[in-house]
Amino acid sequence: MDAQSVSQITEMMYALRNPAGLPTYPIIFVGLSVLTFAMHILFVQLLLGTSLVALYGAYTNNPLWRRLGMAMIDVAKVSVSVAIVIGVAPLLFVQVVYDPHWYTSNVLSADWVIAFIIILILAYWAMYLYYFQNYKREDKTAQPKSRWSLIVSLALMLLVGFIMHSLTSQILHPELWKEWYMQNGKLDYSGDTLHAYNFWRYAFFISMSIPVAGAMMVTYRRFKMVREDADMQYLNFAAEVGKKWILVGSVIATILYVAWMLTIQETAGAFATSFWGIIGGVAVLGYALWAKIRLNGKSEDMCSYMALPMALVIGLVVATSREILRYDILNGFFGYDFFDYKIVMDWYSTGLFFLTFAIVGGVVLSYFLTIAWKAGQTVGVYTPGPGVQKLGTAAIWIVALWLVQFFVVGFYVWAQ
């Protein structure tokens, strides 16, 4: 591509930029995008991996696998909800910083953007159909009902992931936007095509669901072992499976990561052999080494709560590499730099975001996690103590006050 073509593409991207500017420094949005993407993709991988465990358990005659599969479907259905909620954040941050690229990609594949929501809902329904058909059954080792619905759910989830993968890939090819929009000399308004994808990149992120699910099974054993009715044979089985999944899954993911780096687009330059290109694969392989060392004790000592946090750390490293790759393409090759975005400082909205994230989200999430934690480790019905009840009351008051200030400030601005 000659310099004049690159210059024209750069001018086009700047022309599509929001003239209103940003309410605070762009690096803040990018940093939050990396953090929230790592959290989001962790739960995506958790729902895919635990769904795979549940699917295998549903089609095997091994009673331990069947029991483990029914336990993991509980994790999967919660992970879908968390992945959706957290996934809103990195999506919004990308829309703010890379608005010319994200909205162009969405317009070019508008049908798939709309279909994304519909397919996700169907996948969610299919998962819950399987859950509601089986969760009340006392014998968790019996053959589950409606096993087909779990296959449908997992297939649709993978399709949803591919749609999002393609949309994010399209923003990295501004040199092809006009070609995609102009088909055979005619403007294409259909939006019915996904124009770009990298199979190895998609496969890498999906494959990470194997070690993440393994981390969940390791953590599951550690969480359940303190109960008075703990079945240690079953829990040790879950932990051993989890350890193998971390080791094998991390190696598979590392191979796919290398394949991704070998097939990145030419506009990425030498990113694959740069520090950030290499560190992502090293981090993933390092997860296997960590599991081999840290989880190499006796059966009763092998599990810890560090397995999932370690998966998040690996995800942060990969998310950072992914963001630097995007910046290297759009700025390094095409000359589009989000750092020169016009800033119209809005201290109220910036402060409100961080206070909402830290206080509202922190208190409410602490209450939910406390309830889930204590209920899971209690035999029978869990009754919250005075401290937990006070935390719940505080969470309700904080949310109520947030809603009040939201409408008061909104009305004041409207009145002005």
Automatic annotation (TrEMBL):
Give the record's keywords alphabetically: Membrane, Transmembrane, Transmembrane helix
Specify whether Cell cycle is a keyword of the entry.
no
Q: Which residues cross the membrane?
A: 27-57, 78-98, 110-130, 150-172, 199-220, 241-262, 268-290, 347-373, 394-415
Name of the protein: Uncharacterized protein
Q: Organism, per UniProt? A: Thiomicrorhabdus marina
Lineage here is:
Bacteria, Pseudomonadati, Pseudomonadota, Gammaproteobacteria, Thiotrichales
